[in-house]
Design goal:
alpha/beta, 8-stranded mixed β-sheet, 3-stranded mixed β-sheet
Amino acid sequence: MTKTPEWITTPGLTDYRTAEAWMEARATAIAAGTARECIWLVEHPPLYTAGTSAKPADLTDADRFPVHNTRRGGQYTYHGPGQRVAYTMLDVGKRGRDVRAFVQNLEAWVIATLAEFNLRGEIRQGRVGVWVARPDKPPLPDGTPAEDKIAAIGIRLRKWVSFHGLSINVEPDLGHFDGIVPCGIAEHGVTSLVDLGLPVTMDDVDVALRKTFLQVFPDT
């Protein structure tokens, strides 16, 4: 069996519950040794998902889009058109059995992908995901420099195989984030590659994701 993960790109918009069921089945097959690891690139229709740490107060407009409770880690997040979702079904057992390191590798993969467009992504202590500094915006009231979130990460493990994954904002409607407190963080905003003035397409992001993957996740 080849060691390189299978890459699947699904055009159009993928139903969230359909995607979740497919991921769970694939993760089970990977754990059983009957399927390869897989990276699945999708877009979803507008929706909110609630991770295991989601707080009800952070859903500020429950009637705006469908809300899906999910058993991935993290809080509330938004998925929708113009956002690249990369579902990562990888064997963490064979990749060191270190969940924290695995999440850090997902962050590093996003940062390497953004660097392909000369954009500096950064991580912040205590905040999962990837952020970009916004010196073009006024600082926060306490003097902290403004920064916006450009990528979210939330995973689940079953028998040491991961599923769910990450999302990168390419050109979503940023107003759609207004119905939640994204990832429970109210003091910072969200942005996208196009919002930052980068004329990047979904295909461009997909090429960058594939190019940088093995820099962070070598073959097992």
